[in-house]
């Protein structure tokens, strides 16, 4: 029995050994999606041209510029050293802050899945602009640079920042750029699962008094950054993104949908919601 | 970038925490200035004044030992900076 008759790349799920992953909790998304779509619809409500572009198509200059801007912001790309740097901080967090072996295992599954995204976006980048494939693009938004000094910080990072990724991926379901539309569902459900992982950790943290005090005290820092992640409500680029079919909704609308979702989950943890304008930098 | 990095470094220095370059320069490890334990990480793209404000906001947590090194260095720093506030934090949060 050779066991190597097929290419591993093409084996799909069959290549996965049948065993529990992440202490039997991973992935987090299937049980939630089985109960119905957990995310709000983000369909475009304004009339716009029906552009569709695939890999290899000649792209209008403005379109390509906006698409590249979006992908630079997204950042999960194998050739992006700064993304790998961010992932290394997740390894550090797992090593030094994770409270249990189970938590470490879950973080290892998270890292593996983010590296899968890095390969997916690498392929997309190469198909778009070969020079982009190895370009280092440090995350520009401060939210990716906030200090993580406790396991609660790390849990907030996943619950809130990965959820931001899930919302944007949901928006890409209608993307005019086909390679992005094709990966949108996978990235969305994965990022949603990462957010659920963070929420799982937060539930554990908030289940005891000192943990809840810590989580409440740190919430203001992460909540403001999470809402700021969607950019300014009056961003001049938003109408262009929507016109070209690269986004379906504006920053204010997606932020509000995100906030509604997050607020429900935070209240369920017994936490008091911060003032939504406190510590905000991008309104 | 170095101005912001200096600001972050100075803000942590007040709490006896050192910044050490991680595997790639955008992110830094946070290390206890007394015992050398790894305490977490921070990136170098915070906005001006953000680092100091955040760490000031964490005063009570450091004082009560909910944040900071297990060796107690940051809690000691809090007591040295403002003994009354540190005592109140210990009472309220412990």
How would you describe this structure to a colleague?
Chain A is mainly α and 283 residues long. Chain A is 55% helix and 0% strand. Chain A is built from nine helices and no strands. Chain A is globular, with a radius of gyration of 19 Å. The N and C termini of chain A lie far apart (62 Å). With 94 residues, chain B is of the alpha+beta class. Chain B has one domain. Chain B has a three-stranded antiparallel sheet with strand order 1-2-3. In chain B, α1 runs parallel beside α2. Chain B is globular. The model of chain B has no long low-confidence stretch (mean pLDDT 95). Chains A and B meet through α3 and α7 of A and β2, β3 and α2 of B.
Characterize the overall form of chain A: globular
Instruction: State Rg of chain B.
Output: 13 Å
Q: How many separate domains of chain B?
A: 1
How would you state the average pLDDT of chain B, rounded? 95
Look at the structure and give the mean pLDDT of chain A.
94
Number of strands of chain B: 3
Q: How large a portion of the residues of chain A is in β-strands, by DSSP E?
A: under 5%
SS-derived structural category of chain A: mainly alpha
Uncertain regions spanning at least 5 consecutive residues of chain A: none
Structural class of chain B: alpha+beta
Question: Strand content of the residues of chain B, in percent?
Answer: 15-25%
The level of helicity of chain B is: 40-55%
Q: N- to C-terminal separation of chain A?
A: 62 Å
C-alpha geometry of chain B: globular
């Amino acid at each position: 029995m050779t066991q190597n008759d097929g290419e591993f790349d093409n084996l799909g799920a069959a290549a996965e050994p049948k065993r529990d992953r992440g202490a039997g909790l991973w992935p987090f998304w299937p049980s939630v999606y089985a109960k119905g779509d957990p995310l709000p619809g983000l369909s475009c409500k304004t009339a716009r041209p029906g552009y569709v572009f695939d890999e290899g198509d000649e792209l209008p200059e403005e379109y390509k510029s906006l698409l590249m801007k979006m992908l630079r912001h997204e950042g999960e790309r194998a050739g992006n050293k700064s993304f790998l740097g961010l992932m290394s901080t997740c390894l550090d967090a797992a090593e030094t802050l994770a409270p249990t072996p189970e938590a470490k295992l879950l973080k290892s599954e998270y890292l593996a899945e983010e590296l899968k995204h890095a390969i997916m976006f690498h392929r997309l980048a190469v198909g778009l602009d070969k020079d982009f494939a190895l370009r280092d693009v440090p995350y520009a938004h401060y939210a990716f640079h906030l200090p993580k000094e406790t396991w609660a910080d790390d849990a907030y990072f996943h619950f809130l920042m990965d959820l931001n990724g899930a919302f944007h991926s949901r928006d890409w379901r209608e993307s005019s750029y086909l390679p992005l539309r094709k990966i949108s569902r996978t990235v969305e459900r994965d990022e949603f699962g990462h957010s659920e992982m963070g929420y799982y950790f937060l539930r554990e943290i908030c289940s005891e008094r000192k943990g809840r005090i810590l989580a409440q005290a740190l919430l203001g820092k992460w909540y403001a950054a999470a809402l700021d992640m969607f950019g300014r409500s009056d961003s001049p680029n938003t109408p262009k993104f929507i016109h070209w079919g690269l986004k379906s909704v504006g920053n204010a609308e997606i932020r509000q949908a995100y906030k509604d979702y997050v607020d429900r989950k935070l209240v369920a943890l017994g936490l008091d919601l911060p003032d939504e304008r406190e510590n905000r930098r991008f309104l | 970038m170095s101005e912001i990095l200096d600001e972050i470094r100075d803000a942590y220095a007040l709490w006896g925490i050192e910044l050490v370059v991680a595997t790639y320069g955008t992110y830094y490890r946070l290390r206890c200035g007394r015992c050398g334990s790894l305490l977490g990480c921070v990136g170098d793209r915070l906005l001006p004044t953000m680092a100091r404000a955040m760490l000031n906001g964490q005063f009570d947590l450091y004082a009560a030992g909910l944040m900071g090194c297990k060796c107690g260095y940051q809690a000691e720093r809090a007591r040295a900076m403002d003994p009354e506030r540190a005592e109140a934090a210990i009472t309220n949060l412990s």
